[in-house]
């Protein structure tokens, strides 16, 4: 493919990233002060206290996750205390068999906590969560079932399967490792498409385990390119590669990344629409959260691809920076609307259920901060990429 991304100046972007992290500290601090121990998923008219349903309870790790990132950014012990508190509040979910989201919940909370302390008790929570998630494995069909039904596989699970790999590594359990690999291969074979795009869901015959069809809940159509699902796959397969070191996983992540970037270039915007196939206005809203996930995933993908292909590594880093630059323009920032309680505006949760549409969404906040921290960590002495 043609690599046309020009060098990106970090000197110009860096002050904006610092401004955003300072703003994030204000917004997250205000949420914790105004609504203690509350785990919102999306804003309603810019306010975190929402009356709409959760649909499924998958976001509890993203608030504590932001607090750990803010602790790193500010170096302030008060963030450490609150991050520990909000992590502790989700500990009971290590046994939660109702959701497929234990990676989202624990890798952003207990992993940073464990990395800072080395406390075995914290690692045990991560391992237990990984083992709990593995119980969703369907022998017939060879996949981890989604929260919706036994016959349902979601692309989102690619972001959660890393906690099973983690548990396998920590315990040396080869069966756990093989189960996780099988889920990745089934997902790749059945809902990652030849053009690198992904379906949201795969449906199986629960009796035989035969694959029946691609489907969607949150995308525009079963055969469309739901942007966030594609970002989950890009980032998920990148993380899986970190455990497997199997270039099959890297190849899937690259196919997802190339598809994502191609569609952004074709739409002449570095902020993705919520589904690349959705028709023009009024339905073609942006989903900034998909952009934040993709930017963070691309940055890590660039690190992983670097030993194999330096040119593509640079291309992915520049694309990630373009996305971050676009996502941090004033009109998308909470500071542009008086009283807006979120950091990043214009996310979409579930358009068909009218939940969190054109609002701040908790995972969008988390992945934007995560992407920015990756850039800040690696750019102190770098002027351009
Ligand atoms: N449940 C994950 C998502 O909405 O992307």
Would you tell me which CATH topology applies? Glycosyltransferase
Ions and ligands: glycine
Number of domains: 1
Structural class: mainly alpha
Distance between the termini: 20 Å
Spans of at least 5 consecutive residues with low confidence: none
What's the CATH class, please? Mainly Alpha
**What letter string, H or E per element, gives the SSE order?**
HHHHHHEEEHHEEHHHHEEH
Helix content: 40-55%
Number of DSSP strands? 7
Mean pLDDT metric: 96
Largest sheet descriptor: 3 strands, antiparallel
Write a structural description.
- The protein is mostly helical and 385 residues long.
- The protein has one domain: Alpha/alpha barrel (Glycosyltransferase), CATH 1.50.10.
- Helix content is 52%, strand content 6%.
- The protein is built from 13 helices and 7 strands.
- A hairpin with a 4-residue loop joins strand 6 (347-350) and strand 7.
- It binds glycine.
Layout of strands and helices, then pairs:
Elements: H1 10-34, H2 60-74, H3 77-88, H4 102-106, H5 110-117, H6 120-134, E1 137-138, E2 143-144, E3 152-154, H7 162-171, H8 174-191, E4 201-204, E5 211-215, H9 227-244, H10 247-267, H11 288-305, H12 310-327, E6 347-350, E7 355-359, H13 362-378
Antiparallel strand pairs: 1-2, 3-4, 4-5, 6-7
Helix pairs in contact: 1-2, 1-13, 2-3, 2-13, 5-6, 6-7, 7-8, 7-9, 9-10, 9-11, 10-11, 11-12, 11-13, 12-13
The structure holds glycine (GLY).
């Amino acid at each position: 493919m043609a690599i046309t991304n020009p060098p990106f100046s970090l000197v110009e972007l860096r002050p904006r990233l610092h401004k955003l992290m300072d703003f994030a500290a204000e917004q997250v601090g205000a949420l914790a002060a105004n609504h203690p121990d509350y785990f919102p998923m999306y804003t309603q008219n810019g306010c975190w206290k929402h009356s709409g349903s959760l649909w499924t309870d998958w976001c509890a790790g993203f608030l504590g996750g932001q607090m750990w990132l803010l602790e790193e950014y500010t170096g302030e012990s008060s963030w450490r205390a609150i991050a520990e508190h909000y992590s502790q509040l989700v500990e009971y979910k290590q046994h939660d068999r109702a959701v497929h989201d234990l990676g989202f919940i624990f890798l952003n909370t207990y992993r940073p906590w464990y990395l800072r302390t080395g406390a075995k008790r914290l690692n045990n929570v991560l391992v237990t969560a990984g083992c709990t998630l593995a119980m969703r494995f369907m022998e017939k069909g060879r996949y981890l079932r989604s929260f919706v039904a036994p016959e349902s596989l979601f692309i989102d699970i690619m972001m959660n399967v890393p906690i099973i790999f983690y548990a396998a590594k920590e315990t040396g359990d080869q069966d756990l490792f093989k189960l996780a690999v099988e889920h990745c291969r089934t997902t790749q074979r059945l809902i990652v498409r030849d053009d690198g795009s992904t379906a949201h869901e795969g449906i199986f015959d629960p009796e035989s385990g035969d694959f029946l069809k691609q489907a969607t809940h949150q995308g525009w159509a079963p055969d469309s390119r739901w942007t966030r699902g594609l970002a989950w796959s890009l980032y998920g397969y990148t993380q899986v590669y970190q455990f497997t070191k199997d270039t099959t996983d890297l190849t899937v992540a690259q196919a997802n990344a190339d598809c994502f970037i191609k569609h952004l270039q074709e739409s002449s915007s570095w902020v993705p629409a919520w589904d690349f196939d959705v028709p023009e206005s009024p339905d073609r809203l942006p989903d900034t959260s998909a952009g934040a996930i993709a930017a963070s995933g691309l940055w890590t993908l660039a690190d992983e691809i670097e030993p194999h292909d330096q040119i593509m590594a640079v291309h992915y880093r520049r694309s990630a920076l373009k996305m971050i630059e676009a996502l941090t323009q004033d009109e998308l920032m909470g500071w542009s609307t008086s009283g807006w309680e979120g950091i990043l505006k214009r996310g979409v949760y579930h358009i068909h259920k009218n939940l969190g549409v054109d609002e701040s969404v908790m995972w969008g906040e988390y992945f934007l901060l995560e992407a920015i921290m990756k850039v800040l960590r690696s750019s102190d002495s770098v002027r351009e990429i």
